[in-house]
Design goal:
The protein is an alpha/beta fold and about 450 residues long. It has 3 domains: about 20-215, Rossmann fold, CATH 3.40.50; about 225-315, NAD(P)-binding Rossmann-like Domain (Rossmann fold), CATH 3.40.50; about 315-450, Rossmann fold (3-Layer(aba) Sandwich). About 40% of the residues lie in helices and about 15% in strands. It is built from 17 helices and 14 strands. Helix 4 (about 115-125) links the parallel strand 4 and strand 5 (about 130-135). The protein is elongated. The protein starts with 17 loop residues before the first strand and ends in a 6-residue tail after the last strand.
Length: about 450
């Protein structure tokens, strides 16, 4: 556990970059720690006093493999500090990253008022040149609004201080974020000046010594790139889920189809797995925000609207399989759910398919018993006492009429089927990720339901 540091600026080194990152959520914390790991002096800022105090003690607000020891190591080295007051470091930093939340509004558009609040604070207190960089996923045109807000605050002070704006969207995968950041396949940076370009290039050079791929572009294009990337991946997922549903009706096997089309180099194998729909903090929010951006500019994003609609329906697929198997008589049944997080290696349950399944099961009068290796605490906060939280995967399956695998954690891949056969009330496995061999499961005495596996 790291020792607590005083809220003093880190020692200055003219050869070391000094940066501030506002927001210590997933994007901000991972980014700050990884920059510090590469030698930058990083001040992470958040208005949440309790979160900052916990971080000073080495208590992290998120689960990400490998992150905790990196936080401790860089605090001990003096390269990483946490504060609630950004003004303490503004005079020393070259780059201020905004990594605050951009939650969806009721209409699905992104709420950027936290980003503009950061810009307003910087404009009120900056005294030297800096690059204000949006790292949060923000709608196209946000950087221009940031620039306007900072200029308004400087005008109120009657001072002229040069600054630049930049867009540097993140492309981190939860559960593998550190490797993504430390060895990125590309870094997208939107800039307006050669000076800002040089600063951002110097900041990222240590990460890309062997394959220097910083893709510089104009700011609006950088802002759009993040949305386009997530929308494309979401589209592939919804496409495969629709193909899986059609495969079931026509007696085809979506696993064979996936391999067949993925072998085409123009298509590739990634994001072609059928399942219960995508979730998490990025895809659902960004897809809806992109739809909203189109609406604001008089252009209907019909394809992306369909992607979103297909995904919402797909989250019901596991419940519908159970409903059909039991001929609609689910009331009183005990259902075991393996996996709650929206994907393995994270405790993130935002927009997770498990939540839709559990809600439908409870409404149908089922008793729900759940287990997840990491997300149990988050689940308790979200679901309260409405379900039974098991201590392990086998307790969750005890006396269950069906076992539903929702998240493909590694420890679920090779269960003791003979044990499950003895403890379950009814030997039914609903494989939401197609990770099991149907023939093998059936030979062990189970009924098996997968996704897109035909008759």
């Amino acid at each position: 556990m790291a020792h607590q540091l005083e809220d003093e600026p880190p020692p200055q080194n003219k050869n070391t970059m000094n940066i501030a990152i506002v927001g210590t959520g997933y994007v901000g914390l991972v980014s700050g720690v990884c920059f510090a790991e590469m030698g930058a002096h990083v001040t992470c800022v958040d208005i949440d006093q309790q979160k900052i105090e916990n971080l000073k003690k080495g208590i992290l607000p998120i689960y990400e493999p490998g992150l905790e020891p990196m936080v401790s190591r860089n605090m001990m080295a003096g390269r990483l500090q946490f504060t609630t007051n950004i003004t303490e470091c503004l005079d020393n930093v070259e780059v201020v990253f905004s990594a605050v939340g951009t939650p969806p509004n009721e209409d699905g558009s992104a709420d950027i008022h936290y980003v503009l609040d950061v810009a307003r604070t910087v404009g009120k207190h900056m005294n030297n040149y800096l690059v204000f960089t949006t790292k949060s996923t923000v709608p196209v045109g946000t950087a221009a609004k940031v620039k306007q807000v900072i200029n308004e605050e400087l005008n109120k002070r009657n001072v002229q201080i040069p600054f630049d704006i930049a867009s540097n969207p993140e492309f981190l995968k939860e559960g593998d974020a550190i490797r993504d950041f430390m060895s990125p396949d590309r870094v997208v940076v939107g800039v307006e000046s050669e000076k800002a370009r040089k600063i951002m290039e110097n900041l990222y050079r240590p990460f890309l010594l062997k394959n220097f791929r910083v893709l510089f572009m104009d700011v609006p294009s950088a802002e759009m790139t993040k949305y386009a990337a997530n929308a494309m991946l979401a589209t592939r997922i919804s496409f495969m889920n629709q193909m899986a549903n059609l495969c079931e009706k026509m007696g085809a096997d979506v696993n064979h189809v996936r391999v067949g089309i993925g072998s085409d180099t123009r298509i590739g194998h990634k994001f072609l797995y059928a399942g219960p729909g995508y979730g998490g903090s990025c895809f659902p929010k960004d897809v809806k925000a992109l739809i909203g951006m189109g609406r604001e500019h008089g252009y209907r994003m019909e394809l992306i609207e369909s992607v979103n609609r297909v995904n919402e329906e797909q989250k019901k697929v596991l419940f519908n399989k159970l409903l059909k198997h039991f001929d609609g008589a689910l009331k009183g049944k005990t259902i075991a759910v393996w996996g709650l997080a929206f994907k393995p290696q994270t405790d993130d349950m935002r927009e997770a398919p498990s939540r839709v399944l559990i809600e439908n099961l409870l409404q149908a009068g089922c008793r729900v018993q759940v287990y997840d290796p990491v997300a149990m605490e988050q689940a308790r906060l979200l679901l309260g006492k409405s379900i039974h939280f098991a201590n392990d995967m086998y307790e969750a399956a005890n006396d269950a009429h069906a076992l539903v695998l929702v998240t493909e954690w590694k420890e679920f891949r090779m269960p003791a089927w003979d044990v499950l056969r003895k403890i379950m009330h009814t030997p039914l496995v609903v494989d939401g990720r197609n990770i099991y061999n149907p023939q093998e499961i059936k030979e062990k005495g189970f009924d098996y339901l997968g996704i897109g596996l035909g008759a």
